[in-house]
Amino acid sequence: MKKSFLGPNVNAIAMPFIYLAASVLLFVFVLRIGVSKISQQRKNIGEETGTQRILQQKESLLREVESDVSGFVDASSNAVPEKSPALAMVSQLKNLALVQGLVLTSFKIGSESQSPGTSYVELTFGVDGTTPNVLGFMQSLTTVAPVSTVEKAKINTAGGVASANVSLRVYFAPFPTKLPPLTEPLTQLNDEEKSLLDTLSSLSLPAFVKLAPQEPGARANPFE
Amino acid sequence: MPINLLPTDLSPKGPVVRIAALVRSVAVISFSLLLITGLGISAFFIVNSLQIKNLNSANEELKGSIKSLEVTEQGLVLVRDRLGKVKQVLAQDSGADETAGLSKFITQVPQGVEMQEAIISKDGVETTFLATASTSLVQLMAGIISQESFKSVELVSFSFNPNAGYVASFNLKTK
What transmembrane ranges does the database entry give (chain A) (predicted)? Predict the structure, then answer.
């Protein structure tokens, strides 16, 4: 019989050791790959669960405010409109002057000051009446939309008639152009914002005449 | 009893046989562990995959639902943006407090006193009063000092004209 090159002892012990080594190596390999895949999956599950929570909260909030939001939009976008609100403010001044029994003697719309945040347009006007009414009129400027600030006012009184020259800044700002990412959380309006919104809702809005759309009519022939 | 016909020098010796048997047992246990671990990991992997799939489909559904509420979201974003702008405007100095203070005071001006001029700005009110009699002037000054709307009252000028009366100019500050 041919004798083994390695001898019977080595032969007897080698094969079990090879099996053991292969099993251990495979075990380590499977464990490493498996654990890394599963931890990646757990991470994905965590992220997806977080996203789901945000989406659920966002959907529920949007459904909750769906009926009120158009009123909020009207109030807030009239308070700070998208474009120069000079003409709307002139209309408001005329209405306020009428209420106080005053006469608007002049008005001048100045240049617009554009800035990345809030822009404004300068509006100067003259108004005549009794002193308490003129001051009451100036106070009532805070009760109308769009929002404005009194920069300077000069009141001269002669013979019981007050003549005021008032300089206002009326504010506007471009509307936001894009929505936040879908998975970004949306928060409820806080108490301060709600209170501010109540104040804005109480401002009197400028009245505009809306012309109803009309169909084009037949044009008269000027040569007949 | 098994009959071993191999020559004795080809058979492994006593301790080697024991070690080989032990290593073989360990190898079998290790292979069993490998199988159990592999199966366990595969099961866990499948369960996780299903969970991820369910979460993904639920999230896609929610995204669709939110898309259908896009107009509301636009409104809410606009409202929040406008509120921020209004806060910026309200934080700016204006002559509103000064106007309110003067408006409150003007109703309490005594008889015989007339406000000749007032310049209202965000820094304060510069105002000039004409009093026809000294008693009216005293009442006017007492009235101005007792006003809570003004934090500081400065007498800027004071003069007397026999034809018109006493002319007093004040600088009133609300802040």
Answer: 12-35
* Amino acid of residue B6: L
Q: What is the DSSP string of B67-93?
A: HHTHHHHHHHHHHHHHHHHHHHHHHS-
Shortest Cα–Cα distance, A40 to chain B (Å) = 10
Examine residue A215 and state whether it is found in any structural domain, yes or no. Answer: no
Rounded to a whole number of angstroms, the distance from the CA of B100 to the nearest CA of chain A is 6
- Domain residues for B56? 1-92
Q: Cα–Cα distance between B5 and A52 in angstroms, integer?
A: 74
User: How many domains does chain B divide into?
Assistant: 2
Query: Which ipTM score applies to this complex?
Result: 0.81
CB neighbour burial string for A186-210, b if at least 16 within 10 angstroms, e if fewer: beebeeebeebbebbbebeebeeee
Tokens 């029994």 sit on residue: A101
Tokens of B55: 């979460």
pLDDT digits (tens, 9 = 90+) for A76-119: 999 999 998 999 999 999 999 999 899 999 999 998 888 778 99
What type of residue sits at position A100? Q
Range of the domain at A18: 8-79
Looking at the domain assignment, is residue A115 inside a domain? yes
Residue B51 CA to residue B54 CA, distance in Å, equals: 5
Mutation pick from A73, A89, A168 vs chain B, by most beta carbons of B within 10 Å, is: A73
The CA distance from B75 to B62, in Å, is 19
Contacts of B63 in chain A (CB under 8 A): 55, 182
Q: What is the DSSP string of B85-140?
A: HHHHHHHS--SHHHHHHHHHHHTTPPTTEEEEEEEEETTEEEEEEEESSHHHHHHH
Q: What is the pLDDT of residues B17-42, one digit of tens each?
A: 888 888 889 989 989 999 999 999 99
